[in-house]
Amino acid sequence: MLLKPSCVAANDLPQVLADTGHAALDAAAVCTLVGVDAVALAALKPAWNDLPPDNFLRDGGRYRRRRHSCFVVRGRDVEQVPHRAHWQPVDYNALHGGLDRMFEPMATAVTAQPAWAGLLRGLAGVCSAVKGEQPWYVEAHQFRIDTTDGIGRPTPEGAHRDGVDFVVVALVDRHGVKGGETRVFDAEGPAGIRFTMTDSWTLLMLDDERVVHETTPIQPLAADGHRDTLVLTFRRGGFQNPPRQASGAV
User: How far apart (Å, rounded) are the C-alpha atoms in residues 123 and 101?
Assistant: First the structure.
């Protein structure tokens, strides 16, 4: 039997996040938080059918497709910045750290929709409620993990932190797969939780300084088995850049 996440109300999210370092919302609470309806969120879903392959997988896999774009949220203002590479230090991503990974950008079919700006604005507001009002540097990743080769790995780097302030993982779709259990652990101790997100637009928000997270591999139950997610990272002060570059603030 799959363990479902214990979800909180939208109004309780900042406090629960501050208290525990992690919190989950169901789709109705996500709609309340970001000020959009379920139809507007559902309209984003078809874009996951048009993701190019991730050509940077160092484990030789063919199971991941993705797009990536970057934004800055200042209060109510959401600005998409010029397309840039995704970079993480080896300390946070032992498998893919140290690489400038230039992925294809997100399509305007997603980023031009009012629901998109509402999503970033609402979640940035939670970040500010926990850690103070400021610009938030957001990296957005659309992922499809499939079972083309019999197994797909949502987090091939294993349990990890991302080197940011907050991480958001939203389930967009899940079709014909088993596995994909989400695990969250205290970064300083053995305490942890586990659950499986099965309902579209279930959302998990993490304080990246306090917890590590991973998702277990998926295996097929039907043809075209896949798990689609939206991962958003929120960081103070600028985007992550190689040491040779400046802070990335804009």
Answer: 25
CA–centroid distance for 226 within its chain: 16
HSE-CB of 170 using CA atoms within 13 angstroms: 26
- Which contacts of 187-195 are long-range, i.e. CB under 8 A and separated by 24 or more positions? 187/161, 187/211, 187/212, 193/22, 194/3, 195/2, 195/3, 195/4, 195/5, 195/6, 195/24
SS3 content of the chain, % helix, strand, coil (to 5): 20, 30, 45
pLDDT tens digit sequence for 57-84: 867 778 999 999 999 999 999 999 999 9
Q: Do residues 71 and 80 make contact, with C-beta atoms less than 8 angstroms apart?
A: yes
pLDDT of amino acid 250: 44
The helix/strand/coil state of 44 is coil
Report how far residue 215's alpha carbon sits from residue 64's, in angstroms, rounded to the nearest whole number. 14
List Cβ neighbours of 247 (8 Å cut-off, separation of 6 or more): 237, 238, 239, 241
Residue 23 neighbours by CB under 8 Å, 6+ apart: 8, 12, 13, 16, 17, 204, 205
Blockwise average pLDDT, block size 10, the chain, 250 residues: 94 97 98 96 96 84 93 97 82 55 93 96 98 97 94 87 95 97 90 95 97 96 95 95 58
Percent of the chain with pLDDT over 90: 77
Residue ranges of domains in the chain, CATH in brackets: 10-235 (2.60.120.620)
